[in-house]
Every structure is written in C-alpha cells, then in structure tokens.
Amino acid sequence: MAAFERILVTGGAGFVGSHLCAALAAAYPQATLSLLLRPGERGGHPAFEATAADLTDEPAIDALIARVRPDLVVHLAGQASIGQALHAAEMTWRANFHGSFALGSAVARHCPTAAFLFASTAAAYGASFRDGVLNEDAPLRPLDFYSRSKVAAESALADLLAAKGRLVVARPVNHSGPGQRNRNFALASFAAQIAAIETGRAEPRLMVGDLSKARDFLDVRDVVDAYMRLIEKAPDLPASVSIFNIASGTAHSLEALLERLRGRARAQFAIEIDPALLRPQSDIASVACDATRLTEATGWRPRHDIDDMLQALLDDARAAQTQAATATS
Question: At 144, which CATH number?
Fold first, then answer.
C-alpha cells in the first residue's frame, strides 16, 4: 500500500465520492484527509476535514493547496450528468475545465510531485465508438460540451502536472448502484420511479427516454475499486500521464436493463416515452470500452455483474422511499 500522508478529495460528498472516501479512510487511517465541498454543500465522510470553496475560485483553491500540500489529489468534482450538461454549457465548462485548471495550477505551484487522479469520462472517445469497443489509443472525438470540457481538462492537467508529478487519468464508462439517487441518470431514474410506484406514491407509469441505446455499465463499487488500485499503483507509474479505461467491455441496451428491473418490481407499470428525455441524434448507439491496460497494471476486474448492480440500485431506491415516508409521517 502506497504511504500517502496527506490526501485531498474533490467531489467527495457525491455519489462516487462517498464510496471512495469511505475506502480511502479505511485504507489510509494514518493520513490527513481533506475534502473540498461546494459552498453550502453538506455531507462527506466524518474522517475528512471539510473545506468549503468554489473550485473556480482560484485564490481560495490556491490557499487550500498551499495549506494542505497533499501528496495525493483525487479530483472527482465537476458536472457529472451528461443530461444536465447538455442544457448548461457555461456551467459545465466552468466546473469541468476551469475548476480542473485552478486545481491543477495550485498543485503545480505548491506540491508538483503529488500523485493526481483525475476522473474523466469514456465519453471523451465520442464518435470513435462507431468503430466498436475502444482502448485508450482510440482517437478522442467528443460530441458534446460535457465530453469536450473533460478532454480539455485532461490536456490542461497534463501540461500542468506531467513534468514532475504522476497524473492518472481515469476514463470510466457509465456506472450506477447503491447511493445513486439523482434522476438525471437513466438507471437511477428507473429505480426511483419503480420504488415510488411500489409504495403507491406514484402512478403505475414509468417515463423513459430512448431505450435503444446500449451502454457499458459498471457497479460503482467496481469503479471505486479501480480508483483505489490506481491510487495504490500511482507511485510506480512513470512521472508523466497514465490513462486507463474503467469498463466491462460489454454494452447493454437500456431496454434490456429496464426489463431486468421490471422483473424485480413488486408492482406492474406501463412504460411511456417522455420527449424531454430524448437526447440529440448525435448520441452514439453503442458504447463499450476495453480495460485490458487497467487489468494488466493493477489486476482489477469487475466483481459485481449487471444483476448485482441493478438489485443494489433498486434496494437503495426502496430505502429512500421508506426514509421519505418516515420523514413525512
């Protein structure tokens, strides 16, 4: 286990971040753990000391890095939903690019040899997915400003950090599972609607977008396992940029995944298409990535199959319904 002493996480109160912070706290109990939260944001693992600051506030970020001087930075913060990003170009670029630039600049000034894990996205490959399952050598041909902002952030961080530090760029595919309750994500929306229908708090009608799209999905617990293995491996990587896909290599249609959720439902429901949920026509029909490089470097393989992920997601949505009912009773 790499002996990191000062760890900073951005986005640690979010869906993936909450899982990752718990794993980091368990793996590095002697380290000083710091968490960057948005102003007004709540949450975060109790083992982490939280600081509230806007990631695009360069003086505040510079002061934080100068004070903490992390030897490991895990950068998860940003605009996470492609669906949301499509309706907010400026906000997306500010969060994903300007925020990453401010953070990378501060790290380059104050702790340039730190290991830096950047959570990018497999959407960076964009139009290249028309060629099939992709490895890390595939051309980056992003199709929307969410993925373009991530690609730009990758390039900026490489220029800022690669000379002295160890920049690890992770490109995960779609991931879901316990704790994902944001309805801007398809599977989380399906599970939340089903749980509400089961309790009678919603009509037996499930609203969906285009179900024909096929996506490579991972359980969030497998994505966090990949991050942890990359963090442990970081000191042994070249002092430059290392890029890794995090993926299963298999695409599943949203229609098939919804049918698996329907098979677990405790109530019947109709399925209706909501035009507001349909994505632009440039959306790629099938997305899947090859994670051979990650497996060879770390030994990582997914431990949770699609059915594990869907069951955990639905169980979590049911728990949220129970919590909501208890809060209003």
Answer: 3.40.50.720
